[in-house]
Amino acid sequence: MPAFSANMTVMTRAAEKAARGLVRDFGEVEQLQVSRKGPGDFVSAADRRAEEVIFEELSRARPDFAFLMEESGSRGPEDAEFRWIIDPLDGTTNFLHGIPHWAISIALEQKGEIIAGIVLDPVKDELFRAEKGGGAFMRNRRLRVSGRSDPTQTLFANGDARKDRGKFFKRLDAVSTHYPFFRRMGSAALDLAYVAAGRYDGFWEDNLQPWDIAAGVLLVKEAGGFATDIGGNSNPVFSKSILATNGAFHDSLKTLLS
């Protein structure tokens, strides 16, 4: 079994505690779909509750660490050496519609570098985790990116088209002339975890925030893959876009997307 650090244990415990509440709330969403108001407000409250659970757990265990969170923004000491980057519910639209594809993402940053990350899919009971220099794992099974190199056998994921539909469809058209198969599953954290696990050969998306991808980028790199922004920047967490691949298609996709 792999040896995980004390910080990884703390992260995992916090995510699993928040997951119990989210799974319970997810069970209520189906009942709310038939109401005129819908489950929107209920899901927003569930998101905030999960974040507060994670914040409380991590604050108790590591009181000197800072936080960057989707719902609450920055909290904690500004000069902290370590910072947690947290998305308590990645895939909110899926959760809102009762689709069982969403995750909790927690990353740990040290002086601007991501050194640990987890992506927990509570519905499927899959915990993806990685530490810098220690490899990537799903539970205790080592992860490696896919070995596929035949373009006709690839499967890529891409993300949201809301911000710039014209650019999105132009890129999709360019890529699909070479690579025929795509999925849009609605959770960037899980898309990156799936690249790390060899399920996807690559993933790209624009208009992202650090909490969407911080943990996933480390997963991909520790699984032997490549992760940059779409322009090729090797540190994509704060650059608003992501291109992650098994390596075989990275330059080709970067060219097509650019």
Shape: globular
The largest β sheet comes out as: 8 strands, mixed
- Rg over C-alpha atoms, rounded to the nearest angstrom: 18 Å
Secondary-structure element string: HHEEEHEEEEEEHEHEHEEH
Report the mean per-residue pLDDT as an integer: 91
Any idea how many domains? 2
CATH architecture of the largest domain, by name, is: 2-Layer Sandwich
Query: Distance N terminus to C terminus?
Result: 42 Å
- The CATH homologous superfamily name of the largest domain equals Fructose-1,6-Bisphosphatase, subunit A, domain 1
In percent, how helical is the residue content?
25-40%
| DSSP strand content | 15-25%
- CATH level 1 class label of the largest domain: Alpha Beta
Structural class: alpha+beta
Total helix count? 7
Regions with little confidence, pLDDT below 50 for 5+ residues: none
CATH topology of the largest domain: Fructose-1,6-Bisphosphatase, Chain A, domain 1
Give the number of DSSP strands.
13
The strand order across the widest sheet is: 2-1-3-4-5-6-7-8
How would you characterize the overall build of this protein?
With 258 residues, the protein is an alpha+beta fold. The chain folds into two domains: 137 residues, 2-Layer Sandwich (Fructose-1,6-Bisphosphatase, Chain A, domain 1), CATH 3.30.540; 107 residues, 3-Layer(aba) Sandwich (D-Maltodextrin-Binding Protein, domain 2), CATH 3.40.190.80. 37% of the residues lie in helices and 24% in strands. The protein contains seven helices and 13 strands. The strands form two sheets. The protein has an eight-stranded mixed sheet, with helices on both faces. Strands 10-9-11-13-12 form a five-stranded mixed sheet, sandwiched between helices. Strand 5 and strand 6 form a beta hairpin. Helix 5 packs parallel to helix 6. The protein is globular, with a radius of gyration of 18 Å.
